[in-house]
Structures are given as C-alpha cells and as structure tokens.
Amino acid sequence: MSNPLELKLPLLAMMLLVVFSIPQPFGAYLINETFAGTGNKEDITIQEQNTQATEQQGKKYKDWLLACGGEGLLEEQCYIYQNIFIQDSGLRILAITAGFLGQDNSAWLFFTLPLGVFLPSGIAFNIDDGEEIRPQIRICVADGCKGSIKLDEKLIDMFKKGKAGKVFFLDGNTQKQLTVGFSLKGFSKAFNALLLKDN
Fold it and tell me: Contact at 8 Å (CB) between 141 and 17?
C-alpha cells in the first residue's frame, strides 16, 4: 500500500506549514529563550504551564480546540489542537495538533517544538507514563520544529482514555532533556467532533 506521505506530500507540507502553524500572539522563540530561567539541572520538567484554550481560537472541548479553515485552507478543512505556554512568560513551548490528510484520509498527530531542539535525538512522548512513542521530526520552519506520527486505532484509543501525556526532547545547545506535559481532557469529544466534520 502506498504511503499517504508520498501520495500527498504537497498537501502534507501545506498542513505542516499552514494548518498546524496555529496562530498565536507570541511568534517563534529559540529554545534558549523559551526555557530561560529554568536552572542548570540535567533534566528540566516544565511544571508552570498553561493550556490557554479560549473560544476565540475555536470551539472549546476542555483543553482542546476545534478549528476549521484559515489561510490557504478550505472552510471545511478542520483540525483539533492544544497550545502549551510557560505560565510566567507566556511563551509557547509546545503545540499538538490532530487532523486528517493523505489519499486515504488518515488521522495524523503533529507536534510543534521551539527552534533549537537537538534534532538527532528526535522527540518522544508517552501517555499516562506508559511506553515511549517516537514521532519523526519532519521539518523546522519559522514557528518551530515539527514532528508527526500517524494516529492508528490503538493510539487514538490511548489518547481518548488517557488523562495526560508528556513530550521529551533535548536542548540543542546543552543536550539537557526537556519534559513538557500536555492535557488529554476533552480530547475524546474534540476528536469525535472532528470526525463528524470530516465525514
């Protein structure tokens, strides 16, 4: 079976650069700016964070938002997402987005990280402290470095039943591990609403 990434590479590029570059008022930040003041620990866990989901950015499902259309998109092209910000500075440290693309209209999950991550080590995440899953970092653009993974039924079920997740990556300068948590509150309802929009 052909890979949907190969069949729809221009569409995927558009989704990565446009759809999943969620508009937000802070612009892009280098990783050393984003994590300034976190100390000299070997491993850094970002604890003071805020999902900042508001109705103005889309239909709210607890900590997830459903939005459609936007620059370069058709009105019916929809996706769900969550932005994570450092509470004190207001800088975005993580964006997670899910949507359907490719010839077979598969579900994909995208992560946007700050510029300056250590690319050779990639990115990993888990759900409720379970096994680590490793998306591929596909591209780095103005608003950050983007990783993606296909959402199969098992992974969708994990997201729907889970309470929270963690994303792990390394600072490109210090190679310290950075850990950022994200919420799964509202993911199930948001994803089901996305399915209805997509059908």
Answer: yes
